[in-house]
Amino acid sequence: MSVRTPYRETRRKLLMAFDVGTTFSGVSYSILDPGQVPQIKGVTRFPAQKHVSGSSKIPTIIYYDKKGTVRAVGAEAVTDASIEKADDEGWTKAEWFKLHLRPKSLSTNTTMSSIPPLPNGKTVIQVFADYLRYLFECTCTYIKDTHLNGDTLLATLGHRIDYVLSHPNGWEGSQQYQMREAAVLAGLIPGTPEGLSRVSFVTEGEASLHFAINNGFASTKLNHGEGVIIVDAGGGTIDISAYARQSNSYVEISAAQCHLSGSVFVTMEAGKFLSNFLSGSKFSDDVKIIQKCFDETTKLRFGETEEMQYIAFGSYRDNEQEFNIRNGRLKLTWQQVASFYEPSITCIVKSVKEQRDFARQTLSHVILVGGFASSDYLYNRLHALLEPVGLRIIRPENHMSKAVADGAVSFYLDHFVQSRVAKVTYGTLGGVPYDPNDSEHVERQDQTYFLCSGQKRVGSRFLVVLPKDRRVSEKEEFRKPLMRQFKSKPEFSSVSVTFWSYGGSISPPKWRDVDARMYSEVCTVEVDLSHLTRKTEDIKKRGPKGKYYQLDYEVALLFGLTELKAQLIWKEKGVEKRYQADSSFSLTN
């Protein structure tokens, strides 16, 4: 199953996969030589990183000075020297910036207030670009240091580097577009169609599945038709996906889920508790410091043994017995600390059960990966809650924290997943014939209009092209016939269609003004049709108010891969013509 075939292309290529996480990031890569079986390698040394064998992650942190210049990144940003200099010179720290990309469906008042703001004058694309540039430079340095003739290799492959960027399951076309923009800004690729095509995307859930397959799970544990649930527990998000094995490939069997419930939210729960617990204490102003100490020490050690927990934050002179503070250590009960994990654990268990119920087929294994998966307490709690309902929890032995980066390379090379399930509903906005007997039409009387042909229509209708929860094979196409009428030739020179997604609970969604917050613009496709005005015999019509021009066309979506492809289709003299929005399609949000 996981036996990789030799690379079939005729030219040598370099592949880099960047896993930019909320709190930690990693890189994997592969040198693709014609006729050779590609190997997945990880970058295990970064500047200022403590030299621990096999270390493959660095903090997702950037420091900017007052002029907006990058001063420290990754492991360099958490050294004592950098932290002191940041305080002395007024540097600004960017952390958790990945979450500023999140779609509307993942935004709540609580999460928005909890996510650290971006540095003044910086957009999320600019910060993302600075971090991607740093990861690229580190990867190049690592290749030069560890490969024979590494300098020559990079010099000859500079324009033949492909990139895979991983992202949470809940990220959509808008987030992919912004990440690709960041890759251009970082100098990884040029902003040409050829350059943009060198970046591909994979969800963290699918990357984790590829990692599990390559680490021996699927070939020995699953029979044909059996499924597995992937839980990628990261710093910011929990990504949950379900797949079933079909011969030598996999199909997604339930719409993937994404929740803002990763390990940083355990720390947030600790912060809420500490603010209340230390109210009235002389250390109440030190809650942020104590919370940080919890995140870096106590949280990492917390396990199943029900013993008192301690957060060391000060010196032996720091004491306040009534608040359980002695010798600079705050004492908490095991139950208090366990409560910080409960929202995340509840979220995972609920989502896993939903995946199983929706799939309606044999699902007996849950693979737990990601940085948060290294928590023994998390693993043991999930084991206790899911084993009784017939779900076995498995943690791969090999570097769970690098599962996504390695899996992203495997996604590019091995392509195990052959079909996926739409997480949201995709469509476009338009008008439908007005029905005076339809109360919903009557309510929207102010949105009615007349076509050139005289037909009365009502707008604001969401025209579904690809419904949520639909399983889509890689080559399957979803089409919707549309029509546009124009009074004059100049109006007919181009057609623009905007695609939308709906992530709410209404099924099927019908009106843009109902549950409006859950609609997001995906992309806009504009086609130059000026050449058709010279051949009006096919498009010229006559209505009650004279002649007009009509274009009958279709919109199409292809969603078999992890990136949505949008097309406009029309006919000229009976011959079908297509225009596809490539990687440079314009986004309007």
UniProtKB/TrEMBL annotation:
Extent of the signal sequence: none
InterPro entries: ATPase_NBD
UniProt-recorded name of the protein: Heat shock 70 kDa protein 12A
Species whose genome carries this gene: Laccaria amethystina LaAM-08-1
Taxonomic classification: Eukaryota, Fungi, Dikarya, Basidiomycota, Agaricomycotina
